[in-house]
């Protein structure tokens, strides 16, 4: 970006003279936004900054439709903006789909316990739900009369007669008598059919025994083998071919108008919408369904998912034949530049000042100190202490505003004072963000307490890491993560200490608290900018490691 003449700034309308507003006075109750999109409606509606991602999502021919990014990077905000900018958007909320009916089902639990592969069922369930939602929206099926009109007057006109068309219509008629009901009803209906079919197929083998986890554990090997065979046959007979015919019918005869685009958006997959015992399989099945619906050219199924949750899905479902490479083209990985983050700040500071002082444009740099901080400008100092996510920038600036009570601009002292609270909150937020993967993360991160801002592999001892694991094991966390498992193996002398140490470094890099410098001629790499995992072939022992500046104060990092 070319350097602007002194006293000028770029606003939405182009380059203009930088205004001065000597009467601006900060109040500690002011905020430039909330940390989460759900609470940030005021600013999202007027201050949205499009990095190009919105246009990609709106374009149904563009393959990227799974929005991937860490907490606070703007996934939910992007989906909300899509809903505002397009007319035909269906929002599916996982928590209201009654998918807990699956995890509460004794038969599903039974089948999972005896290792019946239900991946196909989960995928077909998503296909079924998505197809019906599209039909409901397209033909405005909200009641029994509108449903009857669809089957009597609309459906018979679809496409030319063919075996596939007849199968599709037969499938829709079989399941369509309750199209007008809520989505959660259809999830239960579809699951109940599988349960009844399984009961009929294997009931003879469980005479007098109820389905459930306890029943599964009491089976003999012979009983288990026969039940798995019969149950697997039921799963394989699910009407997957008929559903493919339905999707083809929708592509060829229904959603054919390029001026009438339809979207289904699914968010909040990281929340408590289904039991973890099947959540990862359901998300994997959803990703496969999203890929399947690409064949409908003017329909786009858009899913938002946190980076750490996607990584967890890949790890947990690897044995199910899930190949991430096949789905790379679907991922829209959100990234922010410092220039884009500055636009976010400019728009938000204008929003809080416009009704109080002026209708003219205010640039964020107008309220920042002019002197440099650590050989960079003050805004660069702040950005350096974030992972380039809007949420973190907003958090930091809100802390600055609170410290700037009664003043008209920030000072270097205000920014450094705000950093103390901000850094402590970032450590806590990091523990919460990754708590599902690493319940004992608090203990692991504390190994860095008081360390230098950058250090070698040997600066962290195996003893320090093993002590953090011992603390975690003593606390008796219900779920033991990879590091705890390795710690137990070390205690039983089945793994070496350096393997435990490498695992700790890998976790610290993955969560973003530590960056790596593999070789002297390579810049520091961070998981939120570069590779999400340390690349294969890198030797940890020869690297330099850097603690991210966001955590320096929170972890008491030594800067000497």
Keywords:
alpha/beta, 8% strand, 48% helix, five-stranded parallel β-sheet, three-stranded antiparallel β-sheet, 3 domains, 22 helices, disordered N terminus, 560 residues, 10 strands
Task: Please give the structural blueprint.
Elements (H helix, E strand, L loop, with lengths): L7 E4 L2 E4 L23 H7 L5 H6 L7 E4 L5 H11 L3 E4 L7 H5 L1 H8 L5 H20 L5 H11 L8 H13 L7 H20 L10 H5 L3 H16 L3 H15 L7 E5 L9 H17 L6 E8 H10 L14 E3 L4 H17 L23 H7 L5 H14 L8 H22 L7 H5 L8 E3 L5 H14 L6 H10 L5 H15 L2 E4 L26 E4 L13
Parallel strand pairs: 3-6, 3-7, 4-5, 5-6
Antiparallel strand pairs: 1-2, 8-10, 9-10
Helix pairs in contact: 6-9, 6-12, 6-13, 8-12, 9-11, 13-14, 17-18, 21-22
What's this, in brief?
The protein is α/β, with parallel strands linked by helices. It is built from 22 helices and 10 strands.
Describe the protein:
The protein has 560 residues and is of the alpha/beta class. The protein has three domains: 26-47 and 337-432, no CATH class; 53-333, no CATH class; 439-551, no CATH class. Helices cover 48% and strands 8% of the residues. The chain has 22 helices and ten strands. The strands form three sheets. It has a five-stranded parallel sheet, with helices on both faces. A three-stranded antiparallel sheet has the order 8-10-9. A two-stranded antiparallel ribbon has the order 1-2. Strand 1 and strand 2 form a beta hairpin. Helix 6 runs parallel beside helix 12 and helix 9 packs across helix 11. The radius of gyration is 27 Å and the shape is globular.
